[in-house]
Amino acid sequence: MQLGQHQARLVYTSAYDHLVTTGRVLGSDGRVSLYAHTSLARSVCEAAVRHNWLLDTSVDHETRLLRSAVALYSSELNRLKGVKEIPEGADHVAGKQREQLISACEADVIKLEGILASAGINSVLDRRRRKITTHLELSSGPRVPMQFETGPMMIKLLPESPSWYTIS
User: What's this model's pTM, rounded to 2 decimal places?
Assistant: First the structure.
């Protein structure tokens, strides 16, 4: 639960920082940018939606716990994916360094999977039983998808203006 609250604080801080920057872009010299404010506002809204999703009081504590686990697990998997996408022989990363980064990220994923398993959180694989986790679930029943859908949450939380988000 502490990790989930920490993640929510980080997301909140990001939203606040983008919101303050949006204010600077819109008002410091009386001129309005063409696009920068839209990108910043989109970041604010995405962070606010993620914050709401992590700390949503309309769901039980087990679901909030799973959401925190999904956010953490997704972050680790994305970090591993990013490191694997570093081209072999890239100028800024020697081959041995690349392999060390991959090994470290793989070890972090394995460690997190162990922590999740010890907490009774199980991975649900895709229908073809490949090693692609589609959901995390507790043996007591709750299940949370690995993919976070911002659009539907935006429509739910900002019903007066959901379309600006999808077209910006």
Answer: 0.77
